[in-house]
Amino acid sequence: MSMTTEATIQELAAQKYKYGFTTDIEMEEFPKGLSTDIVRLISAKKGEPEWLLAWRLKAYEAWLKMEEPHWARVHHPPIDYQALYYYAAPAKAAPKSLDEVDPELLKTYEKLGIPLNERAALAGVAVDAVFDSVSVATTFRETLAKAGVIFCSISEAVKEHPELVRKYLGSVVPAGDNYFAALNSAVFSDGSFVFIPKGVKCPMELSTYFRINARNTGQFERTLIVAEEGASVSYLEGCTAPMRDENQLHAAVVELVAFDDAKIKYSTVQNWYPGDADGKGGIYNFVTKRGACRGRNSKISWTQVETGSAITWKYPSCILQGEGSVGEFYSVAVTNSHQQADTGTKMIHVGRNTTSTIISKGISAGKSNNTYRGLVKIMPGASGARNFTQCDSLLIGDQCGAHTVPYIENRNSSAKVEHEATTSKIAEDQLFYCRSRGLSEEDSVGLIVNGFCKDVLKELPMEFAVEAQKLLAVSLEGSVG
Amino acid sequence: MLEIKNLHARIGDAEILKGVTLTIPDGEIHAIMGPNGAGKSTLSYVLSGREGYEVTKGEVIFNGENILEMEPEDRAAAGLFLAFQYPVELPGVGNANFLRTSLNAIRRKRGEEELDAVAFLKLARAAVRQLAMKEDFLKRNVNVGFSGGEKKRNEMLQMAILKPHLAILDETDSGLDIDALKIVAEGVNALRDEKFSALVITHYQRLLDHIVPDVVHVLAGGKIVRSGPASLALELEASGYAGLEVA
Is residue A395 part of a domain? Predict the structure, then answer.
């Protein structure tokens, strides 16, 4: 690349992040820091039953004995867990209906392109909006209730459907599973709950939109989705945060349970604030996502487009217990400027004839580092198990890094495991070819990158595929000169 | 009208073009022939604005504008089109999407209205038929898995849709069988009118049987050493390039 190219990279590496505004609203915050008192306070605030408080406290005890994991290829200064706020919520009482939601909040979601007014909403998509620590609105609840689908905040589910929550909470990701999951289990404040009863195909796309607004606040949301026999659902989460100089912690847990012939499709468009061009600020996105295919021929499919966050540490996984169950992981992870991503999946084959597919596309630009880390584990009983893994990395510029760390453990000789990996650079001749046809340099990069990610983007629900394409282009804006 | 005046260009330390002067009036087709290493491809890349080529002297005026200062995409919007000797593969990028994005980028720069998907598809299908291509060509990824002939046809399809004022064909005939050669020639001939001009760069005379040029230039040692009518190509075919460089 020429000198001008280098200069342009430096100049433009600062991404334009259009969701960086803050909402000025009266907030209720608990005192800084973490202790059993804070855990009790959160639980009391939510009017939780005794068993849940006990569960939280047990998780907190476990967390105290654990150490922050450092095996991922990411670097950050030590996190002071006592300097964070663990609960922040709009001060006004939780609204009973959409008409009662604070207009400031409605405006915020409007600006984010997520109208909560059902008339203005995207057709066919129901939204649960989570603002800092609490859910502020859930749309289309009546429509869904008619179909027998429960879609509400997890706090509400604890009150309205305690037997379901108690049965499944922590059944896929136990409270002491890992450092961040234990932290989440102790202090989770809200999130979404979805229950699709036997034989029901959810009539709408379900979506949760997470927004971090408050300063120095961690967001610890918990999502639980259960699909009974023959049920199916497609769920999408989106995330944004204001531009702030300090790093903010987001440690979520997502649990999915699929019974016989059930299908869960879970899509993520993650666009947390990535920090500025010099690597200042941004979200630490330390997330545990796991699905259990408990029933025969059940299927769990993770699709993620990860463009935001200063650091991403995330491995959406599938435990394939049911015979013939299917796990899929489709991922696009983009890092620019100083972003770091260490992401991938775990496919644990337990049952016979289970299959998994992993398609990972990593794109690194600027001074970023992008790692795919994945485990394919075939247990002794998983006769006839099959896995196909494809990991492709695309480098833009010469100051970034791409790494692929696949782990394969096969304990059944009849299993078949395939792994393919490629690393390429956006070639100068590809860029020139596009530009000689009239495309600007940035549009050329956008086109080439979208082509590179096509196998993953086509897995997204249609309503969001176009958004994701635009997001990719914006995330890489200025990455090539 | 394209005017190349005393053009000198180098790659690194090697001076490749050593004073090329050439004028192509509107409506004319000029051919450039010459031995390997004469600077034919360098000339096409310098004209279309590829990075890595340093112009040390001279100017290139296209319809009154000095295009050497312009980015490649702006040259495309000004009406310049380069048909590549080795068209580039773009995995995952659909041909129709690429063509429409290109066309609309150019139209936008020219202050023209963009074409919607329906209008574009109509235009593209007509062009595909005219070039005797299968319609699934539009659905395939840009040049991925294309045969050599298909890649060249795809260049002609792009040219037919982008409708340039000046097309530069950089050894578009290399590696083509006679049928594919005819398709390329038809692609160029279909655009021929009093406004369209073309610079056909070729090593062999055979393409010029099908695209009859108004003028033939011989490029050797980084300079135009001879110019003449279409018959010059036949003469070269018989006598070869030997001895021309010193002229």
Answer: no
